[in-house]
Amino acid sequence: MREGEDTMSVETAAERARTRDWADVALVAGAVILTLSTAYIHTTLGSLLFTMNAVGYTVLAAALVVPIGLAERYRWLIRLGLLGFVLATIGGWILFGARYDVAYFDKAIEVVLIGFLLVAIWRMDGGPAGVVAHLRALPGEVSDLLRGRR
Amino acid sequence: VAVARRLVPLALLGGLLASVVACSAGPSATPLPIPSGALVLRVVNTAFEPSQLSMTAGQPFTLYFDNADNQPHNVVILGAGDARVFAGDIFSGPHQKVYDVPALASGTYRLHCDVHPEMYGTITVP
Fold first, then answer.
1. pLDDT digits (tens, 9 = 90+) for A7-35
2. Cα-Cα-Cα-Cα dihedral of B82, B87, B92, B97, to 10°?
3. For A60-97, what is each residue's pLDDT tens digit?
4. Do A32 and B13 touch (CB under 8 A)?
5. How far from chain centre, in Å, is Cα B71?
6. Which of A21, A25, A44 sits opposite B9 (nearest CB)?
7. What does pTM read for this prediction?
C-alpha cells in the first residue's frame, strides 16, 4: 500500500512538473510574440525614438529565448528589464504620445505583455521575494563573473 | 521537454516574423484629386513640405494633406500658446485627406504632427 502511494505520488509530481513546463513554455512564447508584435508596430511609426524602441523590444524578445548560458542564467533579469522597458514605454506614451487607434492597440498589447511577464516572474523567479533575492545576489555574481570564477 | 522549451518559442518567433513580412506589403490607392484653390501640404520623410505656408486672414480654406510616408502622420495647426486651432486625423500613407479649415486671424501658426513632435512648419497669416 505504502509502495503504491509512493508510485502515485511520484507520477503526480511528474505530471505537475510537465504541466508546469508547458505552462512556462506558453508564457515565454506568449511574451515573445507580444514583444515582437509591439516591436513591429514601433518599426512602422518612423523616427529614431520609435526605431530605438523597436530595437530594444526585439533584443529583449531574443534574450528571453536565446539558448546561451549567460542569458539562461540571468533570464530573471531579462524578464525584469523587459517589464521595466514596457512600463517606461507606456509612461512615455501617457506623457507625450499621440492618441489614435494604432497607439491604443499597441498599448493593449503592452498591457497584456505586462500580465504575461508578471505571471512569468511569479512562476519562474519566485515572485517579488525571489526577484529581491536575485537582485541582492547580483553584485556578488557579477563580481565573480568579472573575476572569472564562474 | 527541455529541448521543446527552447524550440517552441524560437519556432513561434520565426512564424511571427514570416507572417509580419507577408502582411507588410499593402495595396496602393489612386491619389485623391487636389481641389482647386486648396492649400497643399505634404509629408515626405517625416517632414512637412513646404515647411512654410501663408494664408489670407479671415478666410476659411481647403487643406489638401498628402501623407506620402508609410508612417502615420497628421497635421495640427497650433496658435498662440500652442492652442489647437485645427487638428486633422492621424493616418498612414501613402494617402491623402482634404480638410475644411476655419478662418485664421492674423499671426503666425505652427504646424505640428501628434505622432512626430519633431516635425515642424509654420503658417503665416499677414
1. 666 666 666 666 668 889 999 999 999 99
2. -140
3. 999 999 988 888 889 999 999 999 999 999 999 999 99
4. yes
5. 7
6. A25
7. 0.78
